[in-house]
Structure formats: structure tokens, C-alpha cells
Design a protein that fits this description.
By secondary structure, the chain is an alpha+beta fold. It folds into 3 domains: about 15-275, BirA Bifunctional Protein, domain 2, CATH 3.30.930.10; about 290-385, 3-Layer(aba) Sandwich (Rossmann fold), CATH 3.40.50.800; about 405-480, Translation Initiation Factor IF3 (2-Layer Sandwich), CATH 3.30.110.30. Helix content is about 35%, strand content about 25%. The chain is built from 14 helices and 23 strands.
């Protein structure tokens, strides 16, 4: 382990706890390049599990993977005015290559709409070519200097999906399909409950018609935007002349969507489930779902216990469980427990001479509770049941915590009191005026996280704006956020 001193508690300093937990679990480290991070094997393994499942889900929707260049001609971004204005402060620009000044500067991609739709203009000719559904797993650069590991770095890893459709209805349907895919992944794999809804105009993606999001509440009661799905309308299609011959022989512009999640999800996982002992990784995303720790004193016991532990390892792997045997010499069992607990491994199996003789192992859950003996017979099946149970428990605990830290039907006074205490999700009426929205942000640092989908709306529709008292046009969810 990188550090064996006691962690700062979440209650004492959540930000310090977060950084210490990541370093102790060896998920990431600070890079020599300011604003960037190095994702260490333990952290990258979680990202790989996320990639695998999301990739399967996208492909189930007919999406194919591709790869587009890291470098984008600067003139491309200028073709969509709102897009370039939104990203201008974050751009990293290459002006020299091969020792010579470039004829046209190249932007290191902050996102790939422009380069992708320039290619779609070449590839799409007819309605028969639609829909075109592509995704790429890539890195992007947004020149961000106020950084926090995983949550906000100048360079990060993500997936970005880009699709083209024959009409707005089809594009909107796909935008919402991806939104629900992100929600399913967040809840069923990350055990992280989320709200779904639409962003306000001031918060939508630069160049989009509408932006939808999933929003989660972290343990410090700050919101985290965990994924976005955008209906881009025809803005980029018109900028890059992405047209197709329709079924009546006329020429139309395509309708585009884009959508993405990033390595920010690793930070979300840590802040949703971690405790004062370290990371807790939901079983479905853990690099190792089970770690086996052999316990022995003599050489004779060592040979006996290691043989049994190795057999258990092979049986668990054969049963589809990601298991690891920690057979390191010179490291005491207690030190191993401490290390794997800090890394968030869901289950630990301890095997000693008495366990071998009895045909049992001792099971310890990362989420606490006493150790319990388990029969080695049918162990893989038993552990799969335990893993499913832990997934559900983690999700329900996080959902309960979110609801306990949410308030509905707010007035200006109750909203300010709520923020002055611990904060969380605040539901209330909003007049729809951007000036009102900006004033709230300026005075409280809270933003509208989303205009919630019907499922998450309050039973009684708010009639007035909680801030200015004018008639409400919608309900909004406010929170301070990362």
C-alpha cells in the first residue's frame, strides 16, 4: 500500500478523505504534467470493467466502435459558433510540428463532433445509410487547471457516441435511449442511484438542441453530473453539410446525437460507496471480487494451506468469479486484510489449517459484519449470491442516503437554510428565467442540476418560483456540485 497512516475521516474533511483514499488504494497519482493524472493499474482495472459492460450495452443498440484523430483543424471548431464559444477557454492548440510552424493550428480534441461530422458528410449519401451509429473510446484534453483526481483533469478518458438520423423524432428517441442506458449502468453496475432529466439552456452542451443528464448525490451532499446525452438537432449537420437523399428524392440534413461518460465515474464510485477505511467497490465492477488470504505458521501448514487456497482459486475462476490469491511471503495476514480493505475488494476468504481440515473457508465482507464460515462445496455459487446481495444493499443504502438529503417544495428561505446546513438535492418551482437561475448561482453557488423527468418529480406540482415568486413553469433540482 502507498500509505498506512490513518485516513482523514469523511466527516472531518471529505475532500482530503477522497484524495487520501485514491492514493492509498493506488487508483491514480499526480502527473508531472500539471492538471493531468496517471491512472494506476488498480484504477484502470475498474475503468476496464466499466468499459466492457458499457461497450456491450452500446453494441446491443447497434452502435459500432471507430476511432477518429486526436488533432482537429482549428477552423473546424469555428464552423459551429456556439460550439467554439463554449470550448474556447478550454482548448489546447498545437502551432508547431516537425520543427516548423503549421499552416493551420490544430486543436487537441476537447470533443469530436466536428471531426466526426466532417467524415459523416463523406459517408452519408442516402436515407439507406441511416441511422449511422458510432462510438469511440478515447482521451480528450480540456485545459482545466483546478483539478481533482478523476473528477476534473486536463486530460481524461471517455467514450463519445455520435449518431446521425433521418428526423428529429428518431434522434430524440435515441438520445433518451442512451440516457436510460447510462441510468441502468449507474444503478445496476455502479450501485449508484441517479436522477434523469434535462439541462437548462444555460447548462446544455455547446451547440446542442437539448441536453439530458444523469445526476448523482455524493456522500458530502454535492451533486455530480455522471453522464450526458445530447440531441444536437441539425446544427452540426448544417455546419458540415451532412446531407442525405430522402425516400422522396429530396435532400435533407441529418439529425445528430452525441453522448458520453468518462473516468469521472471512477471518482463517483469512490465518493458514493467509500467509508473511513477506504474504497468499497461494487462486486460487478471490482478488479478482484474475492481475495484469498492463506494463514499458516509452519512450513507444513504453509504447503497444506496454499494447496487448498490454490484449489479454491481455480474453482472460483472456473465459476466465473474474478479471484486473486495473495500468497506473498513476509507479509502478515493482518497487513493483507488492511491492504485489500483499502482497495475495496468486496469479499475476502481466509483459509487456515483448521479450515482446510473442516472443508471450509472464512468469509469477510468489505461492507462489515462478522466473519462467517462457508463450505468449500458450492462456494462459487454461494459467493455469486453474496455478490448480488451486496450490489442491492449498496444501491439501496445510497438511494436511502440521497432521499434523506433531499428536500421538496422549497421556498427561498427553506432553500437557503438547507444549503446552510448540509445541502443535497433541493426540489422546487422555477419560473424558467435564466436571469433568476444566474442570480441563484451567484448568491448560493448552487445550480440547477436538471429539470427532472416525471418519475422524479414531486407529487404536487409547484405553482411559484421558489426564488422570485413568479408563476413556475417547471420543477427544478438545485444542488452545489462538483
Amino acid at each position: 500500500m502507498a500509505d498506512d497512516k490513518k485516513l482523514t475521516t469523511r466527516a472531518a474533511d471529505f475532500s482530503a478523505w477522497y484524495n487520501e483514499v485514491i492514493m492509498r488504494a493506488e487508483l491514480a497519482d499526480y502527473s508531472p504534467v500539471r492538471g493531468c493524472m496517471v491512472i494506476r493499474p488498480n484504477g484502470y482495472a475498474i475503468w476496464e470493467q466499466m468499459q466492457r459492460r458499457l461497450d456491450e450495452m452500446f453494441k446491443d443498440h447497434g452502435v459500432q466502435n471507430a476511432y477518429f484523430p486526436l488533432l482537429i483543424p482549428q477552423s473546424f471548431l469555428s464552423k459551429e459558433a456556439e460550439h467554439v464559444e463554449g470550448f474556447a477557454p478550454e482548448l489546447a492548440v498545437v502551432t508547431h510540428g516537425g520543427g516548423k510552424e503549421l499552416e493551420e493550428p490544430l486543436v487537441i480534441r476537447p470533443t469530436s463532433e466536428t471531426i466526426i461530422y466532417s467524415m459523416y458528410a463523406k459517408w452519408i449519401q442516402s436515407y439507406r445509410d441511416l441511422p449511422m451509429l458510432m462510438n469511440q473510446w478515447a482521451n480528450v484534453v480540456r485545459w482545466e487547471m483546478r483539478t481533482r483526481l478523476f473528477l476534473r483533469t486536463a486530460e481524461f478518458l471517455w467514450q463519445e457516441g455520435h449518431t446521425a438520423h433521418v428526423d428529429e423524432a428518431e434522434a430524440e428517441a435515441f438520445t433518451l435511449k442512451i440516457l436510460q442506458t447510462y441510468r441502468t449502468f449507474a444503478e445496476e453496475w455502479m450501485a449508484m442511484p441517479v436522477l434523469t432529466g434535462r439541462k437548462t439552456d444555460s447548462e446544455r452542451f455547446a451547440g446542442a438542441l437539448r441536453t439530458y443528464c444523469i445526476e448523482a448525490l455524493m456522500q458530502d451532499n454535492k451533486a455530480l453530473q455522471a453522464g450526458t446525452s445530447h440531441n444536437l438537432g441539425q446544427n452540426f449537420a448544417k455546419a458540415f453539410q451532412v446531407t442525405f437523399q430522402n425516400d422522396k428524392g429530396g435532400l435533407d440534413y441529418v439529425w445528430n446525437t452525441s453522448w458520453g461518460v468518462s473516468t469521472r465515474l471512477v471518482g463517483a464510485l469512490v465518493m458514493t460507496h467509500g467509508d473511513d477505511n477506504g474504497v468499497i467497490t461494487p462486486p460487478r465492477l471490482a478488479q478482484y471480487q474475492v481475495v484469498i488470504v492463506p494463514i499458516y505458521k509452519t512450513d507444513e501448514e504453509r504447503a497444506q494451506v496454499l494447496a487448498a487456497a490454490d484449489l479454491t482459486l481455480r474453482e472460483l475462476k472456473a465459476g466465473g468469479i474474478r479471484a486473486h490469491l495473495d500468497a506473498r511471503d513476509g507479509v502478515k495476514p493482518g497487513a493483507k486484510y488492511y491492504e485489500w480493505e483499502g482497495r475495496g475488494v468486496p469479499f475476502r476468504l481466509e483459509i487456515g489449517p483448521r479450515d482446510v481440515a473442516a472443508g471450509k473457508v472464512m468469509l469477510a465482507r468489505r461492507t462489515g459484519g462478522r466473519k462467517v464460515p462457508m463450505d468449500t462445496q458450492g462456494l462459487a455459487h454461494t459467493l455469486r449470491i453474496e455478490m448480488d446481495s451486496m450490489q442491492v444493499e449498496l444501491l439501496e443504502a445510497a438511494r436511502t442516503r440521497r432521499e434523506q438529503n433531499s428536500i421538496r417544495g422549497i421556498t427561498k428561505g427553506s432553500f437557503l437554510d438547507f444549503l446552510a446546513r448540509d445541502g443535497g438535492f433541493a426540489y422546487g418551482g422555477w419560473c424558467g428565467d435564466g436571469k433568476c437561475e444566474a442570480e441563484i448561482k451567484e448568491e448560493t453557488k448552487a445550480t440547477i442540476r436538471c429539470l427532472p423527468d416525471e418519475e422524479f418529480q414531486s407529487p404536487v406540482r409547484p405553482e411559484t418560483c421558489m426564488w422570485c415568486g413568479r408563476p413556475a413553469t417547471t420543477e427544478a433540482v438545485w444542488a452545489r456540485a462538483y
